[in-house]
């Protein structure tokens, strides 16, 4: 269709699919996210993401999202994978707090965390300078990819445009004091937040617990440095980007161990002359047996990281 983007074409196709199937017959079922907030502290709730890859069945609802009640209004840590999710999140936050959403902090630009921000006023959405720049640069590719994978869950979703800058320092919303610490490693910018009154630490996807970490945009050495920084922050509870809330640092240690394991296996496979397919078939150590989607994420990491290793270490061929 001339002048129509892939996303628009998909949206038109989905709209057509939702029309009556027969004259006077059934209509396609309306997709609806079921949000089940769990109280983790007074006036604070976390909605747990599913320990799965993004699929057309789960609509991309795989990341943890947290809601704070404050005297000024609701504050969110991340916004979910789609406009539809963001609308459901807005309604749930208002139901829980009795107030409108006044702040949405985005931790990094991966789709399962940010695309729901399109359901909120730009002036309430806060992101670091690098994250905002990344959304402008690759946002269209990210949304197109999600439309292809998650299908009709994505109807109405576009690229978020944060209207507030999340700079290093302390921001006060009502009685809550959020300490903002821009880090990196999982992506080019990973915003960590610490809420002082509750002692809750939000490292975004710098920390995964009982779910294999994703590495499509990783700089592993930088990630390790960020994990050391996080390990030095005293906290009561840590809320990882994926996995259960915990009262310790097991997620920090486990994420570091996963990165070490993936990097070591890829380096070993490279030295042994394995190709990508052979390397993906190498078994993971037994300690990963209880880690959700470990084999899936390991295979993805091989595809993400092996090409860079080959570029860095293989000799260049020159024409004579």
Automatic annotation (TrEMBL):
Sequence ranges assigned to domain Metallo-beta-lactamase in this UniProt record: 62-242
Look up the signal peptide feature and give its range.
Answer: 1-28
Keyword Signal listed: yes
Q: Which controlled-vocabulary keywords does the entry list?
A: Signal
A family per Pfam: Lactamase_B
The coiled-coil regions, if any, are none
Looking up SMART domains in the UniProt record yields: Lactamase_B
Provide one Gene Ontology biological process annotation.
antibiotic catabolic process
Similarity section: Belongs to the metallo-beta-lactamase superfamily. Class-B beta-lactamase family.
**PANTHER family, A to Z:** ACYL-COENZYME A THIOESTERASE MBLAC2 (PTHR42951:SF4), METALLO-BETA-LACTAMASE DOMAIN-CONTAINING (PTHR42951)
What protein is this chain from? Metallo-beta-lactamase domain-containing protein
Source organism of the structure: Methylobacterium haplocladii
């Amino acid at each position: 269709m001339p002048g129509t983007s892939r996303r628009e074409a998909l949206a038109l196709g989905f709209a057509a699919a939702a029309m009556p199937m027969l004259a006077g017959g059934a209509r396609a079922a309306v997709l609806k996210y079921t949000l089940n907030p769990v109280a983790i502290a007074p006036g604070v709730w976390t909605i747990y993401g599913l320990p799965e890859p993004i699929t057309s069945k789960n609509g991309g609802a795989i990341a943890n999202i947290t809601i704070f009640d404050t005297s000024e209004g609701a504050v969110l840590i991340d916004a979910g994978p789609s406009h539809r999710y963001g609308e459901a999140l807005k309604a749930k936050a208002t139901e829980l707090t009795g107030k409108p959403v006044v702040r949405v902090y985005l931790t990094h630009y991966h789709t399962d965390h940010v695309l729901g921000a399109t359901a909120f006023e730009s002036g309430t959405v806060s992101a670091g300078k690098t994250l905002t720049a990344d959304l402008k640069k690759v946002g269209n590719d990210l949304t197109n990819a999600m439309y292809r994978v998650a299908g009709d869950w994505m109807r109405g979703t576009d690229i978020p445009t944060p209207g507030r800058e999340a700079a290093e320092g302390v921001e006060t919303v009502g009685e809550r004091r959020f300490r903002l610490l821009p880090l990196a490693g999982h992506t080019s910018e990973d915003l960590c937040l610490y809420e002082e009154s509750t002692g809750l630490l939000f490292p975004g996807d710098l920390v995964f617990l009982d779910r294999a970490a994703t590495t499509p945009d990783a700089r592993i050495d930088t990630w390790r440095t960020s994990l050391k920084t996080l390990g030095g922050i005293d906290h009561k509870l840590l809320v990882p980007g994926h996995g259960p809330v915990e009262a310790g640092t097991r997620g920090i240690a486990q994420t570091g161990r996963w990165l070490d394991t993936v990097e070591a296996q890829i380096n070993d496979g490279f030295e042994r002359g394995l190709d990508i397919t052979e390397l993906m078939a190498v078994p993971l150590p037994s300690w990963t047996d209880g880690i959700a989607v470990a084999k899936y994420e390991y295979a993805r990491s091989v595809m993400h990281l092996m090409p860079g290793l080959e570029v860095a270490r293989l000799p260049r061929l020159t024409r004579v």
